[in-house]
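Researcher: Quick sanity check before group meeting.
Model: Go ahead. Protein one:
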Amino acid sequence: MCPKANYKGQANGQNDPANIIFSANVQDYVAFWATTISNNSDDAVIIYNISPNSGNPNVFNPFRSDEEVRSGAVVPSQPDALPGTQTSVTFYSFESKVKTKGTEAFTIYFALYEVDPANPENQILYGCYYWDPTIQVQ
């Protein structure tokens, strides 16, 4: 879907603010969700792969795509927002279980969609991007 030539930009460097440091225990789950400032209602973003940058991953088990349906998710009611109304909402993430403490570099691939100017009911692919953080589990 997104050939490497279409990727735009990357974050590199030891002092890169895009790197992540957090505390976790072995067997904790780490998950990544993606959304836009419009909560994907106008532009939308989808994470479609997370892979280690080294041939010998050591901190995380393989990341996998996950889908969860919350049948009683709360959304604003109309016209005054409250009380909220319950409805079924599907959430998507990429998750992994921590194998051990340490540092690992990843590439997180995501696709950005925009509202189709020819049909504002649809979203169309704008471009494919990636982020290459180093994740340190302490």
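Researcher: Fine. The other one?
Model: Protein two, sequence then structure:
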Amino acid sequence: MHKMHFLCLHGKGTNNKVFEAQTAALRYAINSDQHHTYDFAEGALETTMEESIRDLFPATSSYYSYFDLSTPSSMVKVLRDLERFIVAEGPFDGVLAFSQGAAVAATLMAQRMKRDAAQERLRPVFKCAVFVGAAAPCDPIELEEHGRVRVLDAAVDGEVIEVPTAHIWGEQDASLYPQLLAGLCRAEGRNVYVHEGGHAIPGSQTDEALAGSVRVVKRCIAMAQYGQVPR
């Protein structure tokens, strides 16, 4: 049983400090039996503050996004920047990502599978992935070769992520993208938990949602560590 090193990617209009706070309870609970480590990679595009955090964090701070969908080249750039970050700061065993950060992570994982599936299966960029309230992952080929944004679709693209995954979202989240991303991940390694809330990361205020989230994350990690789900 070895500890895992996670890359953490925040949501749009937040920053590393916000994401550290948002995931504090989840990370603490995940670490109850193993002391995993976490590195946070901040977006480079300064943007307006996410509305849902206005009462919790100072308006005077800077807030960031990873990309702007109206500019597909910004998604191409963040994928290249993220690969450089992983080379410099990694390797990472897993990724913990929320909303736009989850879209970036999933797009990178899909890109590597499409580029060289045999190599990615042998040495995946992440051995597991935790996606919370995920935004839409894009087709990396359309981005790179044509500069167009096309959302990946399991009906067209199949299962493009083969490592174990955990998918957490709220039943009140208006977006269908978290479910869409789950469908793009290998069924045998897919661990899903749907809580009663909205587009948020379960924390200490929501005991039941936090417990359910921790359960699927630990299952996902165990699958990555042992190749199976412990009974």
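Researcher: One line on it for the slide.
Model: DSSP finds nine helices and eight strands in the chain.
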